[in-house]
Known about the structure:
Layout: E1 2-6, H1 12-15, E2 21-25, E3 40-43, H2 51-54, E4 61-64, H3 74-80, E5 83-85, H4 92-109, E6 118-122, H5 126-137, E7 141-145, H6 147-151, H7 160-164, E8 168-171, H8 189-194, E9 200-203, H9 212-221, E10 225-228, H10 239-244, E11 247-248, H11 257-275, E12 291-293, H12 300-309, H13 311-319, H14 326-338, E13 350-353, H15 356-364, E14 368-371
Amino acid sequence: MNIVVDQNIRAAEATFGAHASLRFMDGRAIRNEHLRDAEALLVRTATRVDETLLRGTPVGFVGTTSIGTDHMDIAWLGRQGIAWANAPGCNADAAAQYTLAMAWLACERLDRELAGLAAGVIGCGNVGSRVCTLFRALGMSVVANDPPLTDAGVEGLVTLDEALARDIVCLHVPLTRSGPYPTHRFIGREQLGRMRPGALLLNTARGDVVHGDALLGELRSGRLHAALDVWPGEPLIDAALLEATTVATPHVAGYSDDGKRQGTLMVYAAFCAWAGLTPVAPPEPPGAAPRLHVEAGKNALPQAMDAACFVRRHDAAMRLLTGLSIERRAQEFDRLRREYPPRRDFQAWRIECADLESARLCHHVGFTATAAT
């Protein structure tokens, strides 16, 4: 069996490679002619999977190691009898933890204390529910909005207006264009206008759930602030929007090694079920548990988040893209994602703190932390 694989998919050789010949490619470069002898295709969000890509090919299985499926024409795949799988929840811890690190850095730059703010989380699924937990662990007041969950009878959720009327508004919704609650550009001028002056919009979901021009106007006026990991029209990012954000990163919130590995294993299990194969034992995460020692007098939690998520480093790299042409900016944006360094979830870290209170705070958000005293 032949499988074409996005080169950014972790652990593919150790899993799928036990059953098939793998051809690794840049996900954005995969075309119909590359699939003429492929029985399966493994992608991430960079590859649009539809009739144009698969027409006339022998591909019978498509797996995306991402949570979202907005890059796949699910209806067409179903009509063609092509099996598909995604990886819901695979990187939920990673995305939620990265969201917290982005919020912390944004508040640091805005000279605010994150713990004293109120947050509205829009989308309370795998990622959003974890973000609520992390924010509450810091003592924040948190409300959540999720119309599909409300329809399903879940209690304790609030209206969109109530979620928008907070100090921080976090987006954790899929990108959809149909159904009862489409999210494409659903945060537009009207919704942004309902946010309180000085509020922070934080998006680690999908770029096109926000109307980019409307957001840029609010940022330029100074009425709102934004921390963005995802961008309207990416990788063709608007330089003005990039420059106007408080924190900017290259769509990597879910890019932890633990999340990527789990995504691969989830799709691999679905592939083996489809092909009637016995799965091989999954590889162990590489390397020893990362460690950090925080000296007395230092704030342990932001240091731990900097070490684990390196938001500050990638924000600096994104700032260098503003002076480039839009085509070159897109290339560099993809390069930052492709060359993203190894990253482990908070749970994998061992944080050595100088005092018990610092260790408790790090522990509350998921780190394994110990105190010297």
